[in-house]
Design a protein that fits this description.
Elements: E1 8-13, H1 17-27, E2 31-36, H2 39-46, E3 53-57, H3 65-74, E4 83-87, H4 92-100, E5 105-108, H5 113-126, E6 142-146, H6 150-160, E7 165-169, H7 175-178, E8 186-190, H8 198-206, E9 216-220, H9 225-233, E10 238-241, H10 246-259
Parallel strand pairs: 1-2, 1-3, 3-4, 4-5, 6-7, 6-8, 8-9, 9-10
């Protein structure tokens, strides 16, 4: 007798009926797709169903996808459900914004069925929290790296992602907005950026009560005594002079988080 495997559940949120029907038909062999035409409909559905992944469109009336993921991450009942953005917005700012808000992946329309299936499978296999020795969820410390050089951010992300939840920001002027949605356990700040420097960002961070004591490490190619002394007075706990060994970065982060 053939044993029927239960399909993974996917909730797809999109205000366009055609989009919902299309994705449901494309995924029906691999997943059970539950359609929702708004964020409010999503939350009604979540009262009765716990999906393995949520697919979330960005551009929707009333409540858009960005606000939708904020609402999910604020609610401890749903914060651990992986979210994939499915959207026509493909510019660097929107992709970075989606990932920084906690999306597990970002799929740009138009996409192939193979692309979507691959993203979903990878997400539900890796997006669920690991279970610690005490039976509770193992929460990775959160690191926010701010640097105007995208290659540096990619290097940092790749070096730290196995042990930390890593957020990156290439536009320092948007730091304050980002901190409304995430709570880093440690900051990595580039010292010298055009218009806004690492020094300028320290008061922005310290304005948040929860970040009065959060460790800040400077990444700098100008490790003069005067600069470093000024950084310490402003609350920087350590610095790394570029270019640096990635193991040095890992060691300093580990040391500072243990001290905290």
């Amino acid at each position: 007798m053939e044993v029927k495997t239960e399909l993974k559940k996917i909730i797809y949120v999109d205000d366009v009926s055609f989009g919902l029907t299309s994705v449901k038909n494309r995924l029906k062999e691999q997943f059970e797709v539950l359609p929702a035409q708004s964020v409010s409909s999503l939350f009604e559905m979540l009262k009765h169903v716990t999906p393995d992944v949520i697919l979330l469109d960005v551009n929707m009336p009333e409540v858009d996808g960005y606000e939708g993921i904020r609402m999910l991450k604020r609610d401890e009942r749903y914060a651990k459900i992986p979210v994939i953005f499915v959207t026509a917005e493909h510019d660097k700012y929107n992709v970075e914004k989606g990932i920084n808000l906690g999306a597990a992946a970002y799929i740009v329309k138009p996409f192939s069925t193979k692309q979507l299936v691959s993203a979903i499978e990878k997400t539900y296999k890796t997006g669920k929290p690991k279970i610690g020795a005490d039976g509770g969820a193992e929460v990775k410390p959160c690191i926010l790296a701010v640097d105007d050089v995208s290659t540096m951010l990619r290097t940092i992300h790749n070096a730290l992602r196995d042990n930390y939840k890593v957020y990156t920001l290439s536009e320092p002027e948007k730091l304050e907005d980002l901190l409304q949605n995430i709570k880093p356990d440690l900051f990595l700040l580039d010292y010298k950026m055009p218009e806004i420097t690492g020094f300028d960002l320290i008061p922005v961070i310290r304005r948040f009560p929860e970040h009065k004591e959060t460790p800040i490490i400077f990444l700098t190619s100008e490790g003069t005594a005067g600069n470093l002394s000024a950084a310490v007075r402003l609350g920087v706990c350590d610095y790394i002079v570029k270019p640096f060994e990635l193991q040095t970065l890992r060691d300093k982060i580990q040391t500072r988080l243990k001290q905290d």
